Amino acid sequence: MSLLNRNTFFVREHVGYFKAANAYDVLDPATGQIIGTVRETIPNLFIKLLKFTGLKTSLPFTVDIFDDDGKKLVTLKRGFTLFR
Fold first, then answer.
1. Whether 24 contacts 10, CB under 8 Å
2. CA 61, CA 50: separation in Å to the nearest integer?
3. Given CB 3.0 to 4.6 Å as the disulfide criterion, which of 3, 20, 55, 83 pairs with 36?
4. Reported pTM
5. What is the mean pLDDT of residues 37-55?
């Protein structure tokens, strides 16, 4: 079954110290198998450095969602915002 046709997911975050970009595994809750991945892309070094400041929630981001074969399914983007 395709990742986009499912109603329930389990999302596991990739943890690490001093990481600027977020990454997640999307798992089937019934089997625990990885059915997709989510990765944030940071456009440049300046934005990457700002991720470690209080401005993190206002910064632009791009998130790509991939199926288990590595095929990109969806890209989500948000620009810089002053309002949360």
1. no
2. 12
3. 3
4. 0.82
5. 87
